[in-house]
## 1
Amino acid sequence: MAKKSKNFRRSFRKNKRINHPTYVIDRNGNVYKYIGITHSRKTKDENNIPLRKNPNPKDNRSAYLRPRVEKDEMKNFGRRYDDWRFGDEDSKLVRRMIDEDKK
């Protein structure tokens, strides 16, 4: 099993492979666990979870979370979006998704 990073901080990052922003929630070796963010109500016939507020402060369009935590190699992620934030209600939703993933 790969060693977990002690100094890991969750962050918004661009996933270059899927060309979408993501919220990276964990790192295990060279693999990130993340939640995808999109403008689409559905992805692959699966309903996405609506957010009350878009985490991108420069975008007023509706934003959605992918309904599950996914994994991808670190090399597929680009720059961080340091000015992005979840609203208070959306933060609670994300926290529940992370907690459910840990079960």
## 2
Amino acid sequence: MQARVRLPGMKRWLGISVGFLILAGTSPVPAAQTDYLFRNERVCDEAGEFCMTGTFSYEPNPRLLFLRARVQSAPGPGLLRIRLIGTTRLGHSRFAPFEVRVRGDFSEIINHKMIPDYPEALEWAVQRIEFVADQARTSLTRQ
């Protein structure tokens, strides 16, 4: 006959452990807050030649920058460059280029996503917007 070893505290420990696991599984997890660099606004490049209306957001959990906009005016096809500046917890600055090729058509939809290279940057802001028109198109229109 085998002797049965009895541990009086084992059932209590197991019950407490299961209780903690249940509480941990049902407690609400705070969702990451979406930061808006601009929201439903008309923004233009420094020269005022390229304008768009839309929303530029940053979601910290997947570290995703997302531009959703419509072109309002453009001199033609080209490259939209948005220079972003990010700030770390220690107050250091990080810069990231956000570039989108556009056709330059009125009401063209821009949906572009990017994950910046600096995971330590928590807050992003738009520093500068510029539009570089394609050379072939501009040289044809000037002739």
